[in-house]
Amino acid sequence: MDHFIQLVFSGLFVGSFYALVALGYSMVYGIIKLLNFAHGDLYMVGAFAGFTVLSAGAGVLGGGLLALLAVMLVAMAATGGLGVLLERVAYRPLRSAPRLSVLITAVGASFALEYGIAVAFGPNPEVYQMGVSDGTLNVLGARLTYAQLAMTAIAVVLMITLDTLVRRTRTGRAMRAISQDPKACLLMGVNVDRVISRTFFLGSALAGAAGVMAGVYYGKIDFLMGFVIGLKAFTAAVIGGIGNLRGAVLGAVVLGLLESFSVAYIGSEWRDVFAFGFLILFLTVRPTGLLGERVTERV
Amino acid sequence: MNDESTLRAGEEPLAYAGAVEERGPANVALGGRGVATPAASGRTTAGRALSGVLASRWLGPCVALAALALPYLNSSTYVIQIAVDALIFVMLAVGLNIVVGYCGLLDLGYAAFFAIGAYTSGLLSTRFGWPLLATIPVVVAAAVLGGLLIGGPTLRLRSDYLAIVTLGFGEIIRITANNLDVTGGPNGLYGIPGFGDFGLRSDIALYWVTAVVVCLAVLFAGRLGRGRLGRAWRFVREDEDAAEAMGIHTYKVKFAAYIAGAVFGGIAGVLFAAHQTAISPPSFNFLWSALILMAVVLGGMGSTPGVVTGALAISLLPELLRGAENWRYLIFGLLLIAVMIFRPQGLLPARTGEARRRGRRVRGGAS
């Protein structure tokens, strides 16, 4: 039983990572129907931005949670800005082009980001110099580190913030409207370009936050780390129903739990195979996802 | 769809809204049409001469002859080695071109079929002592099976799902090869026999086998694209809804393209296994799939001469620019974006038999 709860916790923890990345995937897909292959790489860039801040301010920043938050904010701003730039340079000129062109551009963007970082930081993994306190906590017989707890909490706060943003603010309303009918939005005087830029900013910033968290938690980052997580986030978004924000979170948690149990019972070397196999299975059985409907609120 | 492409240049908002709508893959990179880039209009005499050469029916046979004659020109081991690599890459690019170029489906895990081919023939020849030639039917069957597995569920969905599922499939195959004992795990398989040496130096014999197979494959793919099925593929690529309305079974047609691509990839895998004599999982990572895609996109989707040129360029350039791997890939990535924005039809765009008629029908729409 203890073991079971431990698996649930680790699943939830991994799931919260996936959720942060999946949200951005889902938002961008919801609003302009683009699979942003570069999204996983934005997560990687976030980790590297955090790494830069950490190495620059190694003396000033202590350990601790506050330092983590500061690093995360900077990294989020950087990746958010990069996301906006990416949209402006690579995707906006192709909005009216055939879908295949945009997909190929996204692959190119992903490649450019990966190897741009490889050129800038060198191809070897970098080590995050930040130890978050290693205390553990016993909950229902399962062990939880404070770091895990803190990161899950941060992730949840970010998700709630995003949800409120999308549901309560003007920009959020504009996003939801564009995802339903961009043409009508244009006629109603919504500044479509600006809203799309903001969507990219939000989605990329969340991915950047997840990147910093991954860097702190795993301690090691490299320029290809975004590839698999991008795929996983997409899987999560599909499981939840792509374009649906709460669905993305749900899908991420489901995927995290599934992975956690499959690692325990099948073996960790099969984890990725299991996740992608699940994606294919899901597309066969229920391509609209758990919460996705034909007429659904999207963004 | 034709109307939309002519509007594209000026009417941003309308065209944007059109693109966001649920319309499937629209017209992709067809020889210069509707893509009003300055490059297409301002053509120089040299450019016209070049395109004359490219349109010539003798171009294909000449290139094939040159490929076959290479060992007479230069038979150093290094040159033959590089040339076999390049030819295998050409075969992969031509195969992917069927999927991406003709049918407009984005396959990001093409290396998976390459791996299936290499591993199937490698396993049968090393563990069971089959001659390499005899493994080819099994390889074809395995590639078709893989295509069914992935294409079956995803080809019914929007085309971008296929892209990401194939990306996942590429990883699945690689990780599976890495984890199983039968495939040698991370060490892979070694000691794969060649096709035999026919009394020649063994690498030259392999070169000729490869050259003949690849030339036939290029010819076959080119003719496939011009036939009835090829027309159906292009129609599906241009406008899936219209194609369906015209009585094309789009699912079957897309399936055919996907399976054809899989078989090409599988056979290229056999050649690769014979050439390398040892295969291991890292040879089949995403980088490969991306490089093949780049060859297709840069050369010109749907254009056989373009794709062959693109493949030769992508596989031979690294030999010239050794040591700057990461820079090279960075530039490839940026180049992909730039090509899609400024010249989506590729460097050597497709010219089909319908090119002249198409010019007249721009406004008339598909009749």
Folded structure, characterized:
- The complex is a heterodimer of chains A (299) and B (367).
- With 299 residues, chain A is mainly α.
- In chain A, 73% of the residues lie in helices and 4% in strands.
- Chain A has a single domain, classed as ABC transporter involved in vitamin B12 uptake, BtuC, CATH 1.10.3470.
- Chain A has eleven helices and four strands.
- A two-stranded antiparallel ribbon of chain A has the order 1-4.
- In chain A, strand 2 and strand 3 (142-145) form a beta hairpin.
- The longest helix of chain A has 31 residues, at 2-32.
- The radius of gyration of chain A is 19 Å and the shape is globular.
- Mean pLDDT of chain A is 84; it is low at 295-299.
- Chain B is an all-alpha fold and 367 residues long.
- Chain B is built from 17 helices and two strands.
- Chain B has helices spanning 2-7, 12-20, 38-41, 45-55, 59-73, 77-102, 111-127, 132-154, 159-179, 202-226, 228-238, 240-245, 250-276, 286-299, 304-320, 325-342, 355-360; strands spanning 189-190, 278-279.
- Chain B has a two-stranded antiparallel sheet with strand order 1-2.
- The radius of gyration of chain B is 21 Å and the shape is globular.
- Chain B starts with a helix and ends in a 7-residue tail after the last helix.
- At the A-B interface, helix 4, helix 7, helix 9 and helix 11 of A face helix 2, helix 8, helix 9, helix 14 and helix 16 of B.
- Chain A: The chain crosses the membrane at residues 6-30, 42-61, 67-90, 102-124, 144-166, 200-218, 224-242, 249-267, 273-292.
- Chain A: It comes from Streptomyces naganishii JCM 4654.
- Chain A: InterPro entries: ABC_transp_permease, BCAA_transport_permease.
- Chain A: One of its GO terms (cellular component) is plasma membrane.
